[in-house]
Amino acid sequence: MSINVFHLPDLGEGLTEADILHWLVAEGDTVAMDQPIVEVETAKSAVEIPSPFEGTVHKLHGTEGETLTVGQSLISVSDGAEAPASEDAPAPTAEASAAESDDSPEPTQGASYREEERAGTHPSAEESADDESDESSGNVLIGYGTTSGGSSRRRRRGKSARTSGGSATGQSGAASHTHDALTAAPRMAPTVISPLVRKLAKEHGVDITALTGTGPGGLIMRQDIRAAMDQVDDQRRRSDAAGPAPTGLATAPPAPPAPAAPAPWPANASDPGHSTVPTRGGAAPAAAAAAASSNVGGTHGQDVDSRTGLTVAQREPVKGVRKAISDAMTRSRTEIPEATIWVDVDATELLNLRASYKAKDPENAPSLLALLARFTLAGLRAYPQLCSRIETHEDGTRSIARFDGVNLGLAVESERGLLVPNLRNADKLSTLELNQRMREVIEVARSGKASPSELSGSTFTLNNYGVFGTDGATPIINHPEVGILGIGRIIDKPWVVNGELAVRKVTTLTLAFDHRVCDGGSAGGFLRFIADAVEDPTSAFLRM
C-alpha cells in the first residue's frame, strides 16, 4: 500500500497561504479523483480544492481554522494497493515507513516537482497506446498531474523504487529521463494548472479539451476560458441582439513555515497586546496549551486588558480576507500621497432619464450605478492620468504606466469583508452590457465565489457608499491604482435653479487621487466632467 501526500497547491495570483474553512471528507472516507476534499479561504476568495488522487483518506494534515502555506501537506490518500516487493530489496524499516508518511515533503520531491507537474499533461509515446482508452480527468494542480489513467501508477512506481532502496542518483537520472520523454511526447490532455481555471470552465460549460492554451507550453489560462465564453456570447448576440457580451482582458514560491511560538503568556501578565489565540507551529507543550486555552478568561474567567482595565469580550485573529484588507489599506496610506476633492451635484435630470428608461424597458433599464460608471469611463478617457500606475524599477527609478483601456473596480461590501471585483475592458462595453456585467460580478463577489483574478487587476475603482446612507467620505485608494471615485446618497436639498430656489435631488461626488501622477487641475477637470454629465445626462450621452 502506498500513501500519496497532496500538498496545498499554488492557487494563483501570488497567494502563499490559505485558511482551512471546512473539510469535505474525513479520515477513512473513500475519495475519487477530482472530488472536492476541502474548502479553503485565501486573501482573495473561498475555493474548493479537488483531490488529484483516488483511494482512502489516510490523514488530514490540518484542522478547520488552521492556516497552511503553499507546499505544506494537506491530505494523505492511500491507494489500497500492495506495493510489489523485490527479492533483492531489503524490507523497509520502521524508521523508513515513518519517514515515508511524514508531513514534510520527501527529499526528492523538490527535485522532481516539475516532472510531477508535467506528468499529468504529457504522457510518453510508449504509454499513449495503453492509456488511450482510459478515462482522463484533465484536471491538473500545480505539482500534481492527473491524466489518462497513468499518473497514479507512475507515482506508485516511483515510490516503490524509493522503498526498494534506489539511490538518490538513480532517482535523479530517472526523473531526468522521464522529463525528456514527457516533454518530447505529444500533449494528450489539456494543460490546466489552476483549480480556479478548471472551476470557471465547469461553471460556464466550457470544454477545456477543445481549447489551445496561450500560456507557456500551451498552458490554459483564465483568459482562454473567458475567450471561449466570449465566442459563445458573440454567437448568441448575433442571433439575439439583446444578449450582453462580457469581455475579458488578455493580459510565489512557497512561504517558509511559521517560526515556533513562545510559551503562552500567563493570564496575569501585564502585556497590553497579549492574545490567547494559539499560534500555529508553536512549541509549547500540550499541557501548557490546554492550560492557556482553559484560562482565556483570566484567573476569574475574565480577560482584563492591562492598559484600559476593561474586560476583553473577544479576540479575533487577523487573517484571510481581513488580513488582506488590513495590509492593502496600510500600504495605500503609507505609500500614496493622496489628495481629496469633492463637489455637490444636482442629479435630478439623471433620475428622470433613468425613470424614462425603466418605463420603456423595466427588465433591462440600466441602474444609476451603471450610468455613473458610464460617465466615469468617459471621464477616464478624457483624463487618462487617473488610469495609470506608478512603477518602481530595480535600480530605484520610477515611471508612470498609462493603460490603453480600463478595468473598472467596484467596491462591494460582503459577509467576508470589503472586496473589489472588476470589469475587464469595461470601456469597450455598451451601457446595457455594463449594467449586466456589474450585476454579475457584484453577485459573485457577495456570494464569496469570486476568483483571485476577478478580485485583482482593476485600474480605477468606483465606490458607492451612498447605499449606507452617508453623504460623503474620504475613500482610500485601492493600491496600486491612483484614483477612486466615491458616490454619496441622493437626497432632497434646496438648490438654486435659474435664479430661483427649488428642491432638487442632490448627491456628493468625491475623488481621492495620487498626487504623484495627477495634479489638482486634471483631478478637478475629471470630477467636473462627471458632475456635468450627471446634471445634463442627455447631452453627455450625445458627446460619448
TrEMBL record:
Biased composition of type Basic and acidic residues is found at 230-240
Which cofactor is recorded for it? (R)-lipoate
Looking up Pfam families in the UniProt record yields: 2-oxoacid_dh, Biotin_lipoyl, E3_binding
Domain Peripheral subunit-binding (PSBD) residues, every copy: 192-229
Q: Tell me which EC number(s) this protein carries.
A: 2.3.1.-
Note down the stretches annotated as region Disordered.
Answer: 79-180, 230-323
Question: Which family is it part of?
Answer: Belongs to the 2-oxoacid dehydrogenase family.
- List compositional bias (Pro residues) regions by residue number: 253-265
Q: What is this protein called?
A: Dihydrolipoamide acetyltransferase component of pyruvate dehydrogenase complex
Fetch the PANTHER family from UniProt: DIHYDROLIPOAMIDE ACETYLTRANSFERASE COMPONENT OF PYRUVATE DEHYDROGENASE COMPLEX (PTHR43178), LIPOAMIDE ACYLTRANSFERASE COMPONENT OF BRANCHED-CHAIN ALPHA-KETO ACID DEHYDROGENASE COMPLEX, MITOCHONDRIAL (PTHR43178:SF5)
Q: Which SUPFAM superfamilies match?
A: CoA-dependent acyltransferases (SSF52777), Peripheral subunit-binding domain of 2-oxo acid dehydrogenase complex (SSF47005), Single hybrid motif (SSF51230)
UniProt keyword terms in alphabetical order = Acyltransferase, Lipoyl, Transferase
Domain Lipoyl-binding, chain residue ranges per copy: 3-78
> Under which main EC class is this enzyme filed?
transferase
Residue spans with biased composition (Low complexity)? 79-99, 161-176, 241-252, 283-292
Q: Which domain of life is it from?
A: Bacteria
